[in-house]
Amino acid sequence: MTKPPLIWTNVILFSITTLAAITLLPWYGYQYGFETATWISFGLLSVYSGLSITAGYHRLWSHKAFQAHPIVRLIFALGGALALQNSALHWCSDHRIHHKHVDDNDKDPYSAKRGFWYSHIGWMLRDYQGSRYGDYRNVRDLSQDPIVAWQHKHYLLLVIIMNIGLPLLLGMIFGQIWGMLLLAGLGRLVLVHHCTFFINSLAHIWGSQPYTQKNTARDNGLIALLTYGEGYHNFHHLFEYDYRNGIRWWQYDPTKWLINLLAWGGLASKLRTCPEENIAQARITAQLELLKQRLSQFHDNEQLIANLQKEYEHLKYLLVQYYQAKKALLDAKRKKLVDQQLLTTVTNLRAELIKQQKIWKNITAYYKSSHQS
Asked: pTM for the complete prediction?
């Protein structure tokens, strides 16, 4: 099968920036060194451009997981140009198609099933999407956002201003023009590019699948460190409209923290989260399916699977009952109509749920250890 033609603009861009970063940066650092202000600018611009992609392009615009004040949207639009990953309109169009057709080699723009190289960067080097490039029907809602439309219209100019003009200005202010252009401009750009690309590649190859095995997306704490919390990708692909990726208090998700901070300051609103019971059910369902796959390899599997299914159904039943009662209790509290019977029901269901969760944990751990393939 003939490969699509190369997109020479992208080939030249990625080649020059990568080669320059691995040659000029070390040479300049050895010959002249980088000032403290240059390193600080490198760090701040890396965070700014990275968070503009994760909080702006991804969670705000692609998935509409929250709403943001126009000032915040403008800041994200400028940061997106600084990240040099196409306009928000185009980026979000690709990303929505990815979620709709994940792992479909013909429709997913950066399907991980086509290999690491393709999903990481290869899909941008050839004209694989030529037939639909510029088709923004799936982002009509974003076309109505004047800031998104403005950024899309003036994207090239904004890229030049943010990637050359801004580092140049900082270099003039701090007296190290070439150092600032190389480190805060070039080095920062290459770093943010590949960290973001890891979500399309590594986050679909390396990690765990605690919520679903229906696609290749993985949860990986190390990738989360590199991508401001985007590494909890298995969760995200099942609950894409949740403004959080890391839902545990200990999970590293600066993008979530930024959105919370913006909400606290009145600059973000309508933060969307998935119901706790849906998340809990997804976890135990994923565990059930994984264990069924393992047990199916053994001749005595029918009774084992039946026992496992029974415990799963009981746990699922208790989850539904508990969260329904909990919701009723919260509604009653808001209306100041709480009675002792409802409190007792919630308390008893919680105790039963905890007990069954321990049983489930023990039985799944036993099956895993005693039926290793």
From this structure: 0.92
